[in-house]
């Protein structure tokens, strides 16, 4: 899995590309925690280019979200498509965490 990051207003936007599975899920959590340690507490994760997510990926997302919240931050997700959107819906993550249709919507929130 690869990441790119950009600052958009108050939000650090992480774009994930590839697969979030048992092997790569720890990379996601480590990246989120590195962002938090660098002072970014408001993250938007753009999943438009994520091809697949496993239960290990979901656990990693939940762990990162809990750590961000404990530090006074927050995380939101955007641009879910295909199997990733389906997994978020079936698992209930789309109700547990903020999910937006587009990056623009995610960074426009207060």
Account of the 3D structure:
By secondary structure, the chain is an alpha/beta fold. Helices cover 45% and strands 33% of the residues. It has five helices and five strands; from the N terminus they run ββαβαβααβα. It has a five-stranded mixed β-sheet. β3, α2 and β4 form a beta-alpha-beta unit. α1 (25-37) packs parallel to α2 (55-70). The model has no long low-confidence stretch (mean pLDDT 96).
Short précis:
The chain contains 5 helices and 5 strands, in the order E-E-H-E-H-E-H-H-E-H. It has 110 residues and is α/β, with parallel strands linked by helices. The chain has a 5-stranded mixed beta sheet.
Give me the number of helical elements.
5
Distance, first to last CA:
29 Å
Rg over C-alpha atoms, rounded to the nearest angstrom: 12 Å
Number of strands: 5
Largest sheet: 5 strands, mixed
Strand coverage percent: 25-35%
Order of adjacent strands in the largest pleated sheet: 1-2-3-4-5
Structural shape: globular
Q: Overall mean pLDDT score?
A: 96
- Indicate the structural class: alpha/beta
Low-confidence stretches: none
Q: Order of helices and strands, N to C?
A: EEHEHEHHEH
| Proportion in helices | 40-55%
